[in-house]
Amino acid sequence: MEYLEKLIDRIIDRVNVNLRKPAFDAGIYIRHIIPLEQFSRFYAFYALTLHHPLHFHFTHSSVAGSYFLGKCIVDHSVLYKNDVRGDELKARGDIFKFENLEIPLHDDEVIQIRDSFLIMNLIHNHSHDPERPEEFFIQNTASMHHANIHGSPVEGSFLGPFSTIDFTMVHDCVIGTYAYVQTDEISHRFIEAGQVWLNSNLFDFSYRFPEETLKRYIHLEPGGKPTGIFMDFAERRKDDFQRVFEMVQSGSAVPVPQGASLSRYAVVKGKIEIGENVLVAQRAYLENACLGKGSNAQENSYILNSRLEGHNIGAHGAKVIDARLGEKVFVGFNSFLRGMRESKLGIGAGSIVMPHTIIHLEEPLEIPERQLIWGFIGNRRDLEQNSLSLDRLASLTGKLEIGSMRFEGSGSAFVEAFTTRIEHILEANGAYFDGVKNRGHAQQVRNISFNTIQPYPEGALKGLYPTIDIRP
Amino acid sequence: MEYLEKLIDRIIDRVNVNLRKPAFDAGIYIRHIIPLEQFSRFYAFYALTLHHPLHFHFTHSSVAGSYFLGKCIVDHSVLYKNDVRGDELKARGDIFKFENLEIPLHDDEVIQIRDSFLIMNLIHNHSHDPERPEEFFIQNTASMHHANIHGSPVEGSFLGPFSTIDFTMVHDCVIGTYAYVQTDEISHRFIEAGQVWLNSNLFDFSYRFPEETLKRYIHLEPGGKPTGIFMDFAERRKDDFQRVFEMVQSGSAVPVPQGASLSRYAVVKGKIEIGENVLVAQRAYLENACLGKGSNAQENSYILNSRLEGHNIGAHGAKVIDARLGEKVFVGFNSFLRGMRESKLGIGAGSIVMPHTIIHLEEPLEIPERQLIWGFIGNRRDLEQNSLSLDRLASLTGKLEIGSMRFEGSGSAFVEAFTTRIEHILEANGAYFDGVKNRGHAQQVRNISFNTIQPYPEGALKGLYPTIDIRP
User: Fold this and answer.
1) Any bridge partners for residue B83, and if so which?
2) What ipTM was assigned to the predicted interfaces of this complex?
3) What whole-number distance in Å separates Cα of residue A54 and Cα of residue A73?
4) Is the confidence at residue A184, as pLDDT, over 70?
5) Which among A124, A225, A230, B21 has the fewest CB atoms less than 10 Å away?
6) Distance (Å) from the alpha carbon of A231 to chain B's nearest alpha carbon
7) Could you give the count of Cα atoms lying within 13 Å of B380 in the half-sphere of its Cβ?
8) What part of B 306-335 touches A (C-beta under 8 Å)?
9) Are A306 and A362 in a shared domain?
10) What pTM does this model have?
11) Cα separation of B143 and B150, whole Å?
């Protein structure tokens, strides 16, 4: 495995040189986090479809994980159980709009991963970077367990476990554990653990989890492994995924109606109902779940003992347990909603659960319709400090503080931005397919071939993959 | 599937133009032999190991099958459930000896398949062609079910079902159903069905199966599918293979001792005993079988309800059912040995069952030690007409006719050639491994990664594969 060890050392140096001010050592976090032996035990998948341009290229890397759709190049990197999805990458000839500019693309956009170490990350779709619109790059970056890299080119950075960078260009930053950032661009910033921050030229939203609360759910000590409820939850369900990844082909155990799709790389247990136009992505986990028409369970989302009324979004990494979600409830990235077995968490129609929200009930709770919900909620009192009606927010301009949430700017712009994004996600996922028009992912991913690739099983190259190039 | 149809048409034209004298139409045989839909249902495997140079390159082709070890390039071809094994390909720097010449290789040898249509063929190891020693080519060729292309470059030819070309250069020939050819080079020849022919500058051996007998075992009408006992036998066991190919990884159900290896792509049923240094290759089929020390069951061989004493060779496509084989019994390519359930066929130590031999007992039979066995044997009387003691053969020069077998030349050279080849096979397969020295395939294939690749699932490219290039 000597090449793999050297490669990891080299990536650490490249991350550290970017993070030299303030001196940050990525090595402490990543050097021993995955036992080297593991890199030769797992493998990679990639998908073949006619709906997306195809180019996979892997060199001098360990690339365990899944590569679904699109174009992806990985050089000199160590990837471990990642999920890379490029089905919304921009295409040659597309017009990229940025403020008043309209930039035509001279080539298909490609996900470029270089000199990086990524663990169980989700890497998703097109970059919002106007400077390099054809390239969604991740370079000189180390990223810990279950971070989401969503439309966010990133270089010279360290991303903590369960952090999310969302439509943001990130240069030379440390993004703390479970921190969420959505803004245009950040450089040389240190985002604290548990910080949730959305910023645009029209509004600024921020919240920070109390340190002791966050620690119970997810925590990372230098030199240690991530610990807490989030890790335990995923760990307990790991074997179920192992089983679905083991089969070269497999049929569906659950009836899938018109316009809907259930990935063969999703886990399905117990009683499942899937409505029309539902999208259940690879690496989603369903157990005793009812997904109403037009709902989606995205990659790494878990829906357990829950009912989703319809047009619900379970974003990447969202966990919904013992809950009832009304029509069009949105559950953001890496949120963790856990009702009580005997009294399910109810969330009223049209509510928005912000990315990185934890609801873990110690008493029964019904959240009304059209609420914005954030932070940590264990009971009714917490709910008052961590929610706000969307209608009230929409009427607001200026500053607002509720508990440790701070909002400034145009409330209507904020509500408008979220509503637009939710509609975009539903459209893109095919929730509005009428049998002819409004085709989206749910309709396009029904017929895909999957291939596997594996690392060298022994010797100096153990854990690395050969050079692989796949084109149409 | 329009591209696939065009590709098949084009291959037919290229084969036919080579076989224009006498006018032979490969199209009748191959155009509808595999329903087009099938090409999108199967997939390909290839193996990764440190013991062999690696290069797989597939373009404009359908490549279902397995690619184990070595280097293989496939262009503009349609392959269906083939097994391509390159672990004995020559390497750069090797000295290729041919008569008095010693030719140093300037590059690793590559299996090159171009403009060809191959169905369930075995394609194996290094070419004996002194003219192009770095290239084992198959081009402008159509080859039917279960043909063996063994170290035999072939161009512009048609190979019938269950035929074998063995260490022979074949140009513009038709090789009939179940015909076997081993000579230096043949051009513009039509080898009749059931012809078994070995020729060197020291001897000539030939035998031809009676037409009516052969028909029961394997037969191909123009425009039809191959029929007979051989096809039925394989067809009945197809689903067992389907199951082993479906798993990405799998453990062994059978204890595998020191120095032995059992491919995870072999079928294993009932009570199995595997001795030291045994090699059970991919696509071998074992059911209630005991394989003594140093034995091997090669690709497409079937060992059922049988005991192999030790150092036995079950060559590619050999079938051994209800039999006891003494020490060092050799069973050649595509031979079919079927004893009686209540009275197993016995074959004495050191006997050589020629390639393409059928023993199908209607009465109990014990074959003595050190016999050469060929042709069709159903009872004791047949045995007299289809066997000869090796010692008698070794003392012979000139001509000999027994039944429809004709031998001419040096008997000792013939016995010597076979003995040398058997020893070479045992050595190469690792039968003589002592824990340190004499390592062969059985010891080298224990640790291999397997990858799958699949065809386009729909659209104009349905059934074809993307362009794939894999290098170290």
Assistant:
1) B66, B122
2) 0.82
3) 11
4) yes
5) B21
6) 26
7) 5
8) none
9) yes
10) 0.86
11) 13
Q: Which residues on chain B are in Cβ contact (under 8 Å) with A457?
A: 48-49, 447-449
Tell me the percentage of chain A whose pLDDT exceeds 90.
Answer: 75
- Chain A closest CA to B273's CA: distance in Å? 27
Can you give the CATH number for the domain in which B124 is found? 2.160.10.10
pLDDT at A50: 66
Angle between helix A229-236 and A238-246 (nearest 10): 40
Separation of alpha carbons A180 and A169, rounded Å: 13
Provide the number of structural domains found in chain A.
2
> B145-157, pLDDT tens digit by residue?
999 999 999 999 9
10 Å Cβ neighbour count for A35? 8
Place of tokens 């008493």: A363
Token look-up 């969302």 returns A166
Indicate whether A251 pLDDT > 70. Answer: no
Residues B121 and B242 reside in one and the same domain: no
Question: Is A466 within 8 Å of B247 when comparing Cβ atoms?
Answer: no
| Spatial distance between the Cα atoms of A4 and A61, rounded to a whole number of angstroms | 8
Q: Which domain holds residue A19?
A: 2-202+448-470
The reply to whether residue A466 touches residue B48, judged by beta carbons under 8 angstroms, is: yes
Instruction: State pLDDT tens for residues A393-425.
Output: 999 999 999 999 999 999 999 999 999 999 999
Instruction: For residue B249, give the DSSP letter.
Output: S
Cβ distance of A466 and B471 shorter than 8 Å: yes
pLDDT in tens, B169-208: 999 999 999 999 999 999 999 999 999 999 999 999 999 9
User: Do B130 and B177 reside in the same domain of the chain?
Assistant: yes
Residue found by looking up tokens 């080579």 in the block: B18
Q: Give B457's pLDDT tier (boundaries 50, 70, 90).
A: confident
Q: Do A467 and B472 touch (CB under 8 A)?
A: yes
Quote the radius of gyration of chain A (alpha carbons, Å): 21
Residue A207 has which token pair? 């919240």
From the number of C-beta atoms within 10 Å of its C-beta (0-12, 13-18, 19+), residue B413 rates as middle
Band of residue A125 on the pLDDT scale cut at 50, 70, 90: confident
Whether A179 contacts A160, CB under 8 Å: yes
